[in-house]
């Protein structure tokens, strides 16, 4: 009996500045999925339009009623959507909620996990119950009063100001002088109506890839981030102003501790699919910065580098995601 190939749409783009990275991530997944097993298609979701791209890069509009596309008077539906949108709406639960509502199967985290992990404050609050440490922080909403002296007294200098919900380090500032704090809050509030002000953690930054692969939670790798900038910001992430060393230069005891905590965070949050969590190591103890449920997946990104180092091919890594989604649909 010949099994018919499943239709997989690689869904990329997004509504934030991260859409450029998502298109590169989507291309890698599109190129890597096994054509013997799947018919692979490209779908781009942008603020202004949702469209399907055929092999000649001709656009066809997506029917939002059932996420299908009409090609030459025939309707094409997808067995699985491979979600590789960084930022909104693919990493914060909005797209997942829509797909749930229309009965569309997709890869990665469910609506709730995506919404939770996109919110830094709530993620760290949940994880603190599982013994996972993070920086001291103050949470502020737009329009609330900002008492600079009080904040500096509580958190010390330098400190970080971050949007509560944003990806790719957009809107983050490192504040060294009291006089810079108000300006930093304005920059963060441009990205989100809620911000976090965090104490500075002085240590090594590591990025830890965790996935569920063939029924097991595995740590793909621990990458040490050596940024040429003040911190691992957008330029350092995407424009080469950082050195990424896999595996990180840490002793065995620290490696085991980081792996254990990264796995615990993944499982405590009920995650699925790709993830990358960021930590600062102080005296060998990991302090969590954030969790990404749809991390960059372009050839230059950390997760594919870690997979190569671990010995899992990109084809197997992506195929595993599709198979899990198909299995979830059947069960």
From TrEMBL:
<feature type="binding site">
    <location>
        <position position="290"/>
    </location>
    <ligand>
        <name>Mg(2+) 2</name>
    </ligand>
</feature>
<keyword id="KW-0464">Manganese</keyword>
<feature type="binding site">
    <location>
        <position position="290"/>
    </location>
    <ligand>
        <name>Mg(2+) 1</name>
    </ligand>
</feature>
<keyword id="KW-0436">Ligase</keyword>
<dbReference type="Pfam" id="PF07478">
    <property type="entry name" value="Dala_Dala_lig_C"/>
</dbReference>
<dbReference type="Pfam" id="PF01820">
    <property type="entry name" value="Dala_Dala_lig_N"/>
</dbReference>
<comment type="function">
    <text>Cell wall formation.</text>
</comment>
<keyword id="KW-0961">Cell wall biogenesis/degradation</keyword>
<feature type="active site">
    <location>
        <position position="168"/>
    </location>
</feature>
<dbReference type="GO" id="GO:0009252">
    <property type="term" value="P:peptidoglycan biosynthetic process"/>
</dbReference>
<dbReference type="GO" id="GO:0005737">
    <property type="term" value="C:cytoplasm"/>
</dbReference>
<comment type="pathway">
    <text>Cell wall biogenesis; peptidoglycan biosynthesis.</text>
</comment>
<dbReference type="InterPro" id="IPR011761">
    <property type="entry name" value="ATP-grasp"/>
</dbReference>
<feature type="active site">
    <location>
        <position position="18"/>
    </location>
</feature>
<comment type="similarity">
    <text>Belongs to the D-alanine--D-alanine ligase family.</text>
</comment>
<keyword id="KW-0133">Cell shape</keyword>
<dbReference type="GO" id="GO:0008360">
    <property type="term" value="P:regulation of cell shape"/>
</dbReference>
<keyword id="KW-0547">Nucleotide-binding</keyword>
<feature type="active site">
    <location>
        <position position="301"/>
    </location>
</feature>
<dbReference type="InterPro" id="IPR011095">
    <property type="entry name" value="Dala_Dala_lig_C"/>
</dbReference>
<keyword id="KW-0573">Peptidoglycan synthesis</keyword>
<keyword id="KW-0460">Magnesium</keyword>
<feature type="binding site">
    <location>
        <position position="292"/>
    </location>
    <ligand>
        <name>Mg(2+) 2</name>
    </ligand>
</feature>
<dbReference type="GO" id="GO:0008716">
    <property type="term" value="F:D-alanine-D-alanine ligase activity"/>
</dbReference>
<dbReference type="InterPro" id="IPR000291">
    <property type="entry name" value="D-Ala_lig_Van_CS"/>
</dbReference>
<keyword id="KW-0067">ATP-binding</keyword>
<dbReference type="GO" id="GO:0005524">
    <property type="term" value="F:ATP binding"/>
</dbReference>
<keyword id="KW-0479">Metal-binding</keyword>
<dbReference type="InterPro" id="IPR016185">
    <property type="entry name" value="PreATP-grasp_dom_sf"/>
</dbReference>
<dbReference type="InterPro" id="IPR005905">
    <property type="entry name" value="D_ala_D_ala"/>
</dbReference>
<protein>
    <recommendedName>
        <fullName>D-alanine--D-alanine ligase</fullName>
        <ecNumber>6.3.2.4</ecNumber>
    </recommendedName>
</protein>
<dbReference type="GO" id="GO:0071555">
    <property type="term" value="P:cell wall organization"/>
</dbReference>
<dbReference type="GO" id="GO:0046872">
    <property type="term" value="F:metal ion binding"/>
</dbReference>
<keyword id="KW-0963">Cytoplasm</keyword>
<feature type="domain" description="ATP-grasp">
    <location>
        <begin position="124"/>
        <end position="323"/>
    </location>
</feature>
<dbReference type="InterPro" id="IPR011127">
    <property type="entry name" value="Dala_Dala_lig_N"/>
</dbReference>
<dbReference type="InterPro" id="IPR013815">
    <property type="entry name" value="ATP_grasp_subdomain_1"/>
</dbReference>
């Amino acid at each position: 009996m010949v099994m018919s190939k499943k239709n997989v749409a690689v869904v990329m783009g997004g509504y934030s500045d991260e859409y450029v990275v998502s298109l590169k991530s989507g291309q890698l997944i599109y190129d890597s999925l096994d054509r013997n097993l799947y018919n692979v298609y490209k779908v781009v979701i942008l603020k202004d339009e949702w469209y399907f791209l055929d092999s000649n890069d001709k656009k066809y509009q997506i029917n939002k009623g059932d996420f299908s596309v009409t090609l030459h008077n025939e309707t094409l539906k997808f067995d699985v959507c491979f979600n590789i949108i960084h930022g909104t709406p693919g990493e914060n639960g909005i797209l997942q909620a829509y797909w749930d509502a229309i009965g569309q199967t997709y890869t990665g985290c469910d609506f709730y996990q995506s919404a939770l992990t996109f919110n830094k404050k709530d993620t760290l609050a949940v994880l603190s119950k599982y013994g996972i440490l993070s920086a001291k922080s103050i949470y502020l909403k737009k329009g609330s009063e900002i008492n600079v002296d009080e904040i500096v007294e509580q958190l010390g200098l330098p400190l970080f100001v971050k949007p509560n919900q944003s990806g790719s380090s957009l809107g983050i500032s490192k504040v060294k002088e009291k006089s810079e704090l108000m300006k930093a809050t304005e920059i963060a509030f441009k990205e989100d109506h809620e911000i976090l002000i965090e104490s500075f953690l002085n240590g090594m930054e590591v990025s830890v890839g965790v996935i569920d692969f063939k029924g097991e939670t595995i740590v793909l790798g621990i990458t040490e981030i050596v940024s040429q900038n003040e911190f691992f910001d957008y330029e350092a992430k995407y424009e080469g102003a950082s050195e990424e060393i896999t595996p990180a230069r840490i002793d065995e005891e620290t490696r085991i501790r980081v792996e254990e905590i990264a796995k615990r965070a993944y499982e405590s949050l009920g995650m699925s699919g790709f993830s990358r969590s960021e930590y600062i190591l102080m005296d060998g103890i990991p302090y969590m910065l954030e969790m990404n449920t749809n991390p960059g997946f372009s050839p230059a990104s950390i997760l594919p580098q870690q997979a190569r180092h671990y010995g899992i091919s990109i084809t197997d890594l992506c195929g595993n995601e599709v198979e899990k989604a198909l299995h979830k649909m059947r069960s």
